[in-house]
Amino acid sequence: MSDSSGPHETAAELVHRDDNAIIAERRAKLARLREDGLAYPNDFSPSHRAAAIAEHYGFKTREQLEAERVAVSLAGRIMLKRVQGKASFATLQDATGRVQLYLNDEGVGADAHAAFKHWDLGDILACEGVLFKTMKGELSVRCTGVRLLAKSLRPLPDKFHGIADPELRYRQRYVDLIVTGETRDTFIARSRTIGAMRSFMSSHGFLEVETPMLHPIPGGAAARPFVTHHNALDQQMFLRVAPELYLKRLIVGGFERVYEVNRNFRNEGISPRHNPEFTMLEFYAAYTDYRWVMDFTEQVIRDAALAATGSTTVNYQGRSIDLGRPFERLSITGAIAKYAPRYSLAQLQDAGFLRAELARLGAEVDGPQLRSAALGALQLALFEEVAEHQLWDPTYIVDYPVEVSPLARGSDSRPGITERFELFITGREIANGFSELNDPEDQAERFLRQVEAKDAGDDEAMYFDADYIRALEYGMPPAGGCGIGIDRLVMLLTDSPSIRDVVLFPALKREE
What we know:
The protein is built from 17 helices and 18 strands. The longest helix has 25 residues, at 11-35.
């Protein structure tokens, strides 16, 4: 028997050629539908959904359904199909679930049944009928009418293997959502998480606000911004790296509790934990400090976990995490002592030792961020190298040095330390917050030091924001604030190993 494939054709090329043949066949079917005036109608609205049908009628017996004769109308995608002589079965999938359809000439008419036999997996149809249960007890619809609403020109992936290539899942999320129930569940959980956070904030007196995404000066975080140009204003603009400075302007203006579910953009690396655009919940509350903010952040996260999963205990990558108990709080040096006890207290207070040890561990000690770092920044760098990844259970790291916390209020009792925290779970930063710096002269001095760092080569250092200083000069009440990374929180709640798994359309290199 001869082989029609080329002598060097790969498996992928064979699949591509087969797909092209299928697409051509389906285009021919669409052409016939156009000739008959039946292509892509828009005059049907279903009255029922698959999940609701299962919930309200799935427990009933065959006899009860036969007696009640429940009429339903549905629309969705054909996911499975089998033709058995005078009868046909199909599995219809809508946004809520799946239900089986039963068709025969008597129910839908010979012409409609004949047409159905030529429809393909992936086609979107409308059906009307009556509920019944098969001999095996499966809730089904005995169709009295079916119509094709939208022709699928491309074949769906193999029903048993789905989309095996992760990048293809991210690039063609629309297909991933069609064929992968777990993906749909992840994004439903994401929506519930954000909805719960909004409700929780509103119930605690916070006002949801919207602040600009185009900034004349990037600020609110140490990050490299995306740069663009505003044609009408003829000026350089930056995509938002954080909403912080605008939200605190609102605290100055008299809104004592504000929050924003915000999209941020940072022109930095891509990794399982980083996407160039990401979503945060950021909030600020007047007359609070970082201790109050830590307690409140725990409540926000617990409430979100309950909404998304039904529990405050979650499993992530095979390990259990209890979000219901109080989160641990450690200083930077305390965390190093706990998770890397080989270092003595004297060594942790020795800048020369820390610099040499960081070099041994591969850190860029001569880079712009560590070249002139003082003791606190060196301790933080060592923490990031030896302890951060071990913080599996929820842990607040507190008391950050001033030099890496340009927007945080300084400690009244410990010079050089700020009232700042970061929350880590599964070795990842989930939240960052602090008592807010509301002294305009202190803030101006810190901005100037950031400008010096930028001039020395640190492209993540902040700019001097004169308008923000002017706002502070009108007087900002003492306040606390926090930013919670929604993407990373959803990763935790849905047991997703990569941030790309929880972002509908993650950043990818352009297809060639």
